[in-house]
Amino acid sequence: MRRNFTIGACILVSAMASAARAEDSADQQDLANLSIEQLAQIEVRSASKIDEPLSSAPTALYVITNQKIVDSGVTSLPEALRLAPNLWVQQIDASNYAISARGFNGLESSNKLLVLIDGRSVYAPLASTVYWNLHWPLLEDIQQVEVISGPGGTLYGPNAVNGVINVTSRDARDTIGTLARATGGALEQTAAIRQGFALGETGAVRVYANWHNQEGLHPGVGADIDDDYNGWQAGFRSDFGGSEDHVTVQGDLFRTNADTFEGDGAKGQNLLARWSHTISPQSSFELQSYYDYFKRDFVLASESVATLDTQAQANLTHGSHNLVAGLGVRTTKDRFINNLNAFKLNPESRRLWTYNLFVQDRWTLAPDLDVIAGTKIERSSFTGWEVLPNLRIAWQPNEQTLVWASASRAVRTPSRIDRQLEATINGTPFLTQSDEFQSETLTALELGYRGQPSRTTSLSVNGFINFYDDLRTTEFVNGTFQLLNNRAGRTYGIEAWGTAQLMPWWRLSLGGATLWKDLHVKQDHFDFIPRNVVGNDPNWQVKMASHFDIGERIELELNGRAVGRIERDPEVGSYVELGGNLAYRLTDALDLYVAARNLLHDQHAENNDPNSGQLAKRSIYGGIRVHF
Amino acid sequence: MRPLRVLVSAFVAAAAIVASRPASAEVSESDVKAAFLPRFARYVTWPASAAPSGSNPFVVCVIGDDPFGNQLNSAARSQAVDGRRIVVRRLSSAEGAGGCQIAFVAGSRTAPVGQLLASLRGKPILTVTDSRNGGYQGIVHFAVVNGRVRFFINDADAERRGLKISSRLLALAISVKQ
Question: What single-letter DSSP state applies at residue B133?
Fold first, then answer.
């Protein structure tokens, strides 16, 4: 029996290897014999053998490509973000997640990560968080997700302290045609459709709609909440180009419903326009403006934020200098109504302003050595001018190797909650406003390597030391609670990931991150709610992805992860989980697939949120995707 | 035991059959784009001053971060126009692009696509761009339609540079700017 199996396995492996070899050498030959009309009729896939051309960005950068998202069979943005080894992802309930880079994870504490979707910030400024269940872009139309762990540097907006997630959708000219997809399983269902068409002589537009439904999960550390969730998002993107101009106009509209309490759910819309213009071979500029509104009702509390943001950026090349300068202004009008408990914002509604100016020079000192120096100055309604400098050195001894180092300063500016939350219980002040609350600050030192040690392998290794000061503390002062800035300390860790194309039909990726935190409250102070600031972080995580091309019609992707223990009470044990996707291309226009996540256990805990933490659950679903 | 053995054998046989089937036309997007590039030479006429002279080859340039690697070299080797070879040159800036008949403008961090196009403005070079590298469009601009590689063509720009694009190529365009 065993011998039989061994022989069988050998036949299988050698057959797959020979098929893959044949494919490799045959492709170019076949293409050479085709007419230009036939070339235009070939069905293509966007997979590249090795992930990305080596990017020269001197940051800890991981790119989740469109192909990785589609291959993994995931149905939501947060689940797609699990693919990044430098992101820590905890599912909180059926639709909500806590996501962070380099620590401070948790529903309340993950407030140092900037998230952009096509240039629009989805960082919710009222509570300094990201509501992951409000964003349902059509995953097939995402071009890539850049995940930067560490301060985003000069060019990103406010609150890019511990990391930046930059989601970009595909140019409308790359999505002409029809796409329809449906997935269904016991725990979750989705349905989506997109239609793209050419518009005018140089442009294209697409419209899409995306529906989703998540069944509720069982309670973990938190109480049993009715976390069933459903909703839809629809929108459009249009791109028009010329040799000197590129114009993008796009917008989305969404509604969600939650079962937690009568009338719970959210709605919102946004509209964005961007114009890039080249003036000369040495100079170009970009203007962008967007409007964004969302309203979220959750258990007798309601919050809404309307944002208007405009930014301008100019690029100038002069000799060995590459200069970027810009300015931006953002205004938000928020409203927070709380009928659940005594915590109120005073005033209930307020308009806030943020201004920033930035300049950065990338100076090529030698062909293999760049120095990047830049600073941003930023002012908000709550703070004076903050100076946020960063200095980076990029050494590229050859095309396959980049070694970089950086020192930078970043801040999380006070939110309305930091400054203007108050509570009076039975006529006695319980929490008083903190007019003195300052920005939380970070000074970060980083060192990294990124390269392609061989033609079929890629590798990244980053190390960091973060020095924090003025982190939030909840203290008891003069008979009442108050939010102050009396926590400081440092965190450090290593992130590494690599991919190897072991066989033409087998790609293996391995990645992981470690994190040590050493944060303390300053002398003579006491923090009553440390968990809301310090976060609930495991010390390590490991992620694995294995992709098999089985013949030319079947692809198998396996995604595994192992995550360390969360020590902070209530403790959550370490866990190992596995997801996967088996896809069968029935015809050029039709894909069938079976995907799963959390396969190894019926349910497991991955967060310790005492209020709403539910257990992540095994989910198996079938999918069908048509494009024509 | 026996049913299990049969099952395993059947699985192995099925997998081997699936795996050993001849490769289909499903290829990567960049392979097809690489195959297109040297082929454009046959469907474009350059002014005499810009066409290769004597026994010189046609030159296809990639300016910026090269997405094709060896695929483009072998695609160029497999094509010839009027008995003329096609060679590939890789440039990091627009300097030296004067010798290119076709330029794939990929761009890079230090030389963005728009600025490279501005450097090549009005020159008798067939500029080619890609929606993946940003929104700026050269004369030929690659896009993906229903999972197939197609392109926009700016014939007005070609005309200004003295290039004549054949109707056979224009017929394949998603749309043509006259």
Answer: G
In angstroms, the separation between the Cα of residue B128 and the nearest Cα of chain A is 10
Rg (CA), chain B: 21
Asked if residue A216 lies in contact with residue A226, where contact means CB atoms within 8 angstroms, the answer is yes
| Sheet (strand B148-154) strand order | B80-81, B84-91, B58-64, B102-107, B126-130, B140-145, B148-154, B176-177
CB A451 within 8 A of CB A396: no
Phi-psi region at B132: left, alpha or beta (left = phi > 0; alpha = psi -120 to 50): alpha
Average predicted confidence (pLDDT) for chain A: 90
Angle at A470 between CA A338 and CA A326, to 5 degrees: 85
Peptide bond into A347 cis (omega under 30): yes
Neighbours of B2 (CB within 10 A): 7
Burial A110-135 (b: 16+ CB within 10 A, else e): bbbbbbbbbbbbbbbbbbbbbbbbbb
pTM of the model: 0.90
Q: Are the C-beta atoms of A366 and A28 separated by less than 8 Å?
A: no
Could you tell me the CA-to-CA distances from A384 to A52, A311, A379, A495, B113 in Å, in that order? 41, 20, 5, 35, 38
**Mean pLDDT value across chain B:** 85
Q: Is A339 on the interface with B (CB under 8 A)?
A: no
Map residue B170 onto helix, strand or coil: helix
Cα gap A416→A351, rounded to integer Å = 10
Q: Which stretch of DSSP H or E encloses residue B7?
A: helix B2-20
Q: Smallest Cα–Cα separation from A215: which of A249, A250, A258, A173?
A: A258
| Rounded CA separation A112/A133 (Å) | 18
> Among candidates A193, A203, A196, which has minimal Cα distance to A249?
A203
A488 exposed, middle or buried (CB, 10 Å; 0-12, 13-18, 19+)? Answer: middle
Per-residue pLDDT for B91 more than 70? yes
Q: Helices A2-32 and B2-20, interaxial angle, to 10°?
A: 10
Query: Contact A566/A538 with Cβ under 8 angstroms?
Result: yes
Do A191 and A171 contact (CB within 8 A), yes or no? no
Q: With an 8 Å Cβ cutoff, are A8 and B12 in contact?
A: yes
Q: Of the candidates B11, B119, B147, which has its C-beta nearest A43's C-beta?
A: B147
Alpha helices in A354-484 (DSSP H): 416-420
Any residues with CB less than 8 A from the CB of B54 and at least 6 apart, and which? none
- Burial track A458-469 (b if 16+ CB lie within 10 A, e otherwise): bbbebbbebebb
Q: Do B110 and A322 touch (CB under 8 A)?
A: yes
Query: Using an 8 Å Cβ cutoff, are A271 and A290 in contact?
Result: yes
Task: Give the count of alpha carbons within 13 A of A313, CB side only.
Answer: 19
Chain A residue numbers touching B145 (CB-CB < 8 A): 176-177
On the 0-12 / 13-18 / 19+ scale of CB atoms within 10 A, B102 is: buried
Interface of B with A in 75-134 (CB under 8 A): 75, 78-79, 94, 108-112, 114-119, 121, 127, 131-132, 134
Whole-Å CA distances, A545 to A100, A115, B122, B163: 21, 24, 48, 48
Which distant-in-sequence residues (6+ apart) come within 8 Å of A132 by Cβ?
Answer: A77, A78, A95, A96, A97, A99
Any CB–CB contact under 8 A between A6 and chain B? Answer: no
Q: Give per-10-residue mean pLDDT for chain A (628 aa).
A: 47 43 50 87 66 70 92 96 97 95 92 95 91 96 93 80 95 94 96 95 95 94 88 97 92 94 93 96 95 94 96 92 94 94 93 95 92 94 92 92 95 92 92 92 96 90 97 93 95 96 92 96 92 91 95 93 91 95 92 97 92 93 94
How far A163 CA lies from chain B's nearest CA (Å)?
Answer: 21
